[in-house]
């Protein structure tokens, strides 16, 4: 067998770490799913507060119902770091809560490099998650080496170069630890199965049983998903007993593995039983989850319809609604389809009439993948907004190995397909930060007020100034209208204002318009910095077909979010002009060509 560490594996690890650091920097604080809550839990423990109580501390800690191992690990590492401002550095966006923005938090220059206070603690915690991602990659490689040695590196690459996995490995989330531990548990199961017929392997069984119980217990102490490892573990122990024609592996393995697991995490479930009358604290967990709990379970057909999004979000779904280009999903769909075709070829060529270790290993990988999928469906039936592919990642090692096996059936010994898949995924993973993530959260750059093409001096309310504008000369039929406004504020604002834009035709009727937040919600007025002029661009829908041709005007109003009937007063050159600003002129040609007879 080839050496475990080869230069290409080292290069893959280096690439993953580099990409992890890139995503770490590119994603604004707390824009990864539930990151704010995970950080709060770790900060609570770092502050020496002890384990939270699901009722008494409900308003103080996010993700309070989760087992504590990941948060204890992160808390111990960030405890020595100055966490000043952590609670206020990126407050939750009221615009996002109102459904007007896909940016979940208000972001300011306090998050900028060089990181200070709470920002530095979050980035350190993200770095720990990236190291946990390394464990998952190495475990995937180790599993694949025992099944498809020549394709072990492509199998690891399907994990390391998955943009969604990199994104989550650069975020503070307890999923990262349970993913790593689940992958390690699978690796130990593969060792036990692979060495079932070897004398040396049987001698080391008790050691591996103990290691398996340790990893299982740590997984259960990280997330409830870890407890479901009991299914593949139990099946493996039965297989070892059947293979060796002896009940010893089942009995000894059950006692040692189960005993080690209970020693590690049993106290947590005993604590829940004592405090809440339930080892899982299920009712309290649902109470904490609150509005996300569905009033009644979804039917299975409805659940499966929601599950279609898992295929896309398994590969790329960043933050809250930030997607990759459609061509990326076409590529990943093709990769999965090729893997399925490969498995069909395997089934046709090699009927499964017996169960040698290699085939049982594949069965265990499939069982674990199916277990995670079914439990996720059950969770989706009860909790809203959980149809996320990242929740399949406890099985990412098994899914990637199974996919690599399917691709290997098509590839043979040439590895051309594996190389194409690896290079394509790597290119996309490297491109996502600049192509997708940074633009999704980008704030407008500082501009020179002297360079504004059409300067203006219009004031909305007490502090907001409209410095100028850019309008197209002609509104082309059936084409969206691109325009820009130049804004500045004299003072810090406490309200989020909506910008209402209308194109009026020659009769004064609105024929196009939008109501939008500044920069599409990326730069709320609540975080505008005084004395920082910027350019904001807008795209209005095409002008209505019944617009009167002639000279059109742009009408601008500002109003507090949710209060369109309360527009700000407008003044031009310190003279009050009402609550609307009329700007420039734009030609509205007739939709149908007009001819006139002399």
Structure characteristics:
598 residues, four-stranded antiparallel sheet, alpha+beta, 48% helix
Q: Outline, from the CA principal axes?
A: elongated
**N- to C-terminal distance:** 92 Å
For the secondary structure, the number of strands is 12
Q: From the alpha-carbon coordinates, what is the Rg to the nearest angstrom?
A: 29 Å
Structural class, from secondary structure content? alpha+beta
pLDDT averaged over residues: 92
Number of helices: 19
Low-confidence stretches: none
Major beta sheet summary: 6 strands, antiparallel
Q: Strand content of the residues, in percent?
A: 5-15%
Instruction: Give the strand order, joined by hyphens, for the main sheet.
Output: 8-5-4-3-10-11
In helices, the fraction of residues equals: 40-55%
Concise summary:
The protein is α+β, with helices and mostly antiparallel strands and about 600 residues long. About 50% of the residues lie in helices and about 15% in strands. It starts with 6 loop residues before the first helix and ends in a 10-residue tail after the last strand.
Could you explain how this protein is built, in words?
With 598 residues, the protein is α+β, with helices and mostly antiparallel strands. It has 19 helices and twelve strands. The protein has helices at 7-26, 35-46, 69-78, 94-97, 118-147, 152-160, 163-169, 175-194, 199-203, 205-220, 230-243, 248-276, 282-289, 300-306, 310-313, 326-349, 357-382, 396-411, 416-441, and strands at 317-318, 322-323, 454-460, 464-470, 481-489, 497-504, 510-516, 534-540, 550-560, 570-572, 575-578, 581-588. The longest helix is centred in the N-terminal third of the chain and has 30 residues, at 118-147. It is elongated. 42% of the residues are buried.
């Amino acid at each position: 067998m080839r050496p475990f560490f080869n230069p290409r594996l080292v290069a893959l690890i280096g690439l993953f770490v580099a990409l992890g650091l890139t995503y770490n920097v590119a994603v604004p604080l707390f824009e990864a799913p539930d990151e704010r809550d995970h950080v709060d839990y770790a900060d609570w423990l770092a502050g020496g507060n002890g384990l939270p109580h699901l009722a008494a501390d409900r308003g103080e800690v996010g993700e309070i119902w989760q087992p504590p191992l990941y948060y204890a690990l992160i808390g111990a590492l960030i405890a020595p770091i100055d966490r000043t401002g952590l609670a206020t550095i990126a407050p939750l966006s009221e615009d996002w809560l109102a459904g007007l923005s896909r940016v979940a938090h208000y972001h300011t220059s306090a998050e900028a490099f060089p990181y200070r206070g709470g920002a530095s603690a979050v980035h350190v915690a993200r770095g720990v998650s990236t190291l946990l991602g390394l464990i998952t990659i190495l475990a995937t490689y180790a599993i694949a080496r025992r099944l498809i040695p020549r394709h072990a590196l492509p199998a690891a690459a399907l994990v390391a170069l998955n943009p969604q996995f990199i994104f989550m490995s650069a975020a503070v989330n307890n999923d990262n630890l349970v993913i790593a531990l689940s992958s390690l548990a699978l690796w130990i199961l593969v060792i036990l199965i692979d060495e079932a017929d070897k004398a040396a392997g049987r001698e080391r069984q008790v050691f591996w049983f103990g290691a398996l119980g340790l990893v299982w217990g740590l997984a259960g102490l990280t997330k409830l998903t870890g407890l479901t490892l009991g299914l593949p573990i139990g099946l493996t122990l039965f297989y070892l007993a059947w293979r060796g024609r002896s009940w010893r592996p089942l009995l000894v393995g059950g006692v040692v593995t189960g005993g080690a697991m209970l020693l590690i995490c049993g106290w947590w479930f005993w604590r829940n039983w004592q405090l809440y009358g339930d080892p899982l604290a299920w009712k309290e967990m649902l109470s904490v989850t609150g509005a996300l709990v569905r009033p009644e379970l979804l039917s299975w057909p409805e659940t499966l319809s929601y599950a279609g999004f898992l295929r896309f979000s398994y590969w790329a779904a960043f933050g809250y609604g930030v997607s990759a280009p459609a061509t990326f999903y076409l590529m990943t769909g093709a990769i999965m389809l090729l893997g399925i075709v490969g498995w069909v070829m395997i089934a046709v060529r090699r009927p499964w009439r017996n169960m040698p270790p290699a085939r049982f290993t594949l069965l265990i990988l499939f069982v674990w993948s199916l277990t995670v999928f079914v439990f996720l469906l059950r969770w989706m039936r009860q909790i809203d907004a959980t149809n996320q592919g990242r929740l399949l990642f406890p099985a990412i090692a098994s899914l990637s190995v199974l996919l690599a096996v399917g691709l290997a059936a098509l590839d043979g010994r040439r590895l051309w397909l594996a190389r194409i898949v690896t290079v394509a995924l790597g290119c996309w993973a490297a491109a996502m930060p600049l192509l997708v993530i940074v633009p999704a959260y980008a704030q407008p750059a500082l501009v020179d007020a002297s360079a504004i093409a059409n300067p203006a001096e219009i004031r909305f309310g007490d502090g907001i100034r409209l410095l100028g504008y850019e309008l197209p000369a002609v509104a082309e039929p059936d084409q969206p209208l691109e325009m820009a406004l130049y804004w500045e504020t004299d003072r810090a604002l406490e309200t989020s204002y909506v910008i209402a834009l209308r194109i009026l035709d020659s009769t004064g009727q609105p024929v196009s318009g939008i109501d939008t937040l500044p920069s599409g919600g990326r730069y709320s007025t609540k975080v505008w910095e005084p004395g920082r002029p910027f350019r904001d661009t807008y795209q209005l829908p095409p002008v209505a077909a019944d617009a009167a041709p002639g000279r059109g005007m742009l009408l601008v109003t500002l109003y507090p979010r949710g209060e369109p009937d309360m527009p700000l007063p407008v003044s031009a050159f310190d003279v009050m002009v009402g609550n609307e600003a009329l700007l420039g002129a734009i030609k509205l040609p007739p939709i149908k060509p007009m001819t006139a007879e002399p």
